[in-house]
Amino acid sequence: MPGYGMFFDPTFILVIIGMALSMAASAYVNSTFHKYDKVRSKNNVTGTQAAQFILQNQQIHNVGVQGIAGNLTDNYNSGTKMLSLSEATAQSTSVAAIGVAAHECGHAVQDAQGYFPLRLRAAIVPVANIGSSISIPLILIGVLLQGPVLINLGLIAFSMALVFQLVTLPVEFDASRRALAILSEGGLLTEEEVPMARKVLTAAALTYVAAAVSTFLQLLRLVLIFGNNNNRD
Question: Membrane-spanning regions, if any (predicted)?
């Protein structure tokens, strides 16, 4: 069909698939969290209290705990040694909140023990950020100047975002594994509540898997489009 390629890019389906996966994963983690956020823990401890207990129990005394704005914005910063809990987690006594707080403590334990993937991820962050910001400009300039070297550099720069996503996967899965072990042994959750927390953390982990797949599909699309351009040159 004449002009077909001018009006339709078949590789765009890869972007749509990536977006669909990310949206589905995000919807799933939100629905799972809200489901178990309605289940009050029998020990009636808040996310903040759980985090403080876990850090003390793990003999980690150089990490602070603070509340931050937002919903599911919980994070651990290894640079500042600060564990930040969102409004939905910090003061809630739900099974979901305690599970999320324990997960962030899992990162603090990784940091204290020198967990290599966590250190590697921290080292990759600036490279991945720079790569993401310059990749498309490099590719476009390469196309305009018909410079395959610039196109290849742009593709390599974009691939650093995928490397970051792949390194993130073991970090997040390991933090959840540590969290569930701590919750099972520390008595913060009952035997019946631990499987609920596991479902919350599993749902959260799927968002990282979806992000990695989405980034891979975006990179594949760039390779298919501009790799062909490169070959023609």
Answer: 12-33, 123-145, 151-171, 205-227
